[in-house]
């Protein structure tokens, strides 16, 4: 029995499916942990494959590669350095489990399987994994560690079993994606489990972007008294060293460790957007991004996020004026690019509009101009951006926000085209808030400039698509503060019309928004992916039928 144990929490950013690169990251972190005197290094859930591996784990040859790579890597732990606790999909008796594997002494020394498989929200682990039995502790260098895996911490059974079977410290590997308020929720749950078990708890979370999901890291440790004794930063890879000693009361206590305050709301949203975009572009090997810079708030913020994520030299803005584009918008787009230091080209769409008018004139004979011609403008811009993307390889970055996507205030194959929609889960009122926040703050690790990056006039002028004379968004939509509150009630809270009306909204406005939300489902189904920041991301978490005869009850 030992009275001291140094545990490193390795907050790693894996790439799903890139097993060799992921093991290299673990190997490099282990070398640092060894240099800093760690006895054990704990990695996030399924770190060997990246999380979530989804249907990759249904392929037997994929699991063959995983097992071979893990066993070969385990042999390296014969060097006397830190033991490793890594996550990987693992077969046992022909069944595939979400597993935590102890690599020590040159072998896979112990295996524990996840018991509670989440099957809600963004999670569908029951499709691909089989739950394990209630686990007992793992002996690591003479200390009995309980290893509940992610969801196993969210209920009482697994940790109660571990405590009753002699665990001394709880170590929880996680793949927990970011959403607003999630960090506080994790800590509160961990406090509950510590209170119930009387055991200290270490929480190790993945970091990085994976398609729509952003993992924020923010790993932490709690003492047996529920005191926060260690805290890693959010949105960055990090190795957090914790040093534990058995007290006279036979309870393990942590010496003073690094504690980095978690990001506040707007900083956290911005950090998630930057990391999500950066990893989507880099892990998919795009040279950069190209986006329409219209002179409006959405494209200005999207460009700022892109520059902070990738650097100005990898961001290409394109202003595509029509006859309805104001000089103010031209100037604001130019100022956005100048503030950020990114490239800006101007490609007028007037020739395309004229060509479509001539081409469609016989078919449209006798019909007055309407929204059709407005959408042709938007689609001409989409074609232009996709052509530039095809020619130069940069990914088209869509700039639409959640308010617009909710009510269908967007054009299929026009402003909705692109490979990634960085503001897809960001309501319009939040777009304004984080734009003002970014103007006042330079985030840690940002590649863009300090100071103002969104022009001041863009923050105060009425938003407009400029597809016809004197147009503003509020010609079609309620004011955004009203719209966003109604949408959050409908989308995140699943409230009915009477409950929303009781909040002070006019019944006719609520019903109008409900109808627009309902009718736009087919558009959202064709929208590009974008980073999750709220409780209910379209398509991934909110799945409504396109053909749907149910109307909200007024």
From TrEMBL:
Residues binding ATP, per UniProt: 292-299, 399
PROSITE patterns found in the cross-reference section: CN_HYDROLASE (PS50263)
EC supergroup of this enzyme: ligase
Pfam families: CN_hydrolase, NAD_synthase
Pathway assigned in UniProt: Cofactor biosynthesis; NAD(+) biosynthesis; NAD(+) from deamido-NAD(+) (L-Gln route): step 1/1
Catalytic activity: deamido-NAD(+) + L-glutamine + ATP + H2O = L-glutamate + AMP + diphosphate + NAD(+) + H(+)
InterPro entries: C-N_Hydrolase (IPR003010), C-N_Hydrolase_sf (IPR036526), Gln-dep_NAD_synthase (IPR014445), NAD/GMP_synthase (IPR022310), NAD_synthase (IPR003694), Rossmann-like_a/b/a_fold (IPR014729)
Binding site for deamido-NAD(+): 375, 404, 523
Key words of the record: ATP-binding, Ligase, NAD, Nucleotide-binding
Role this protein plays: Catalyzes the ATP-dependent amidation of deamido-NAD to form NAD. Uses L-glutamine as a nitrogen source.
PANTHER family: GLUTAMINE-DEPENDENT NAD(+) SYNTHETASE, NH 3 /GLUTAMINE-DEPENDENT NAD + SYNTHETASE
Name of protein: Glutamine-dependent NAD(+) synthetase
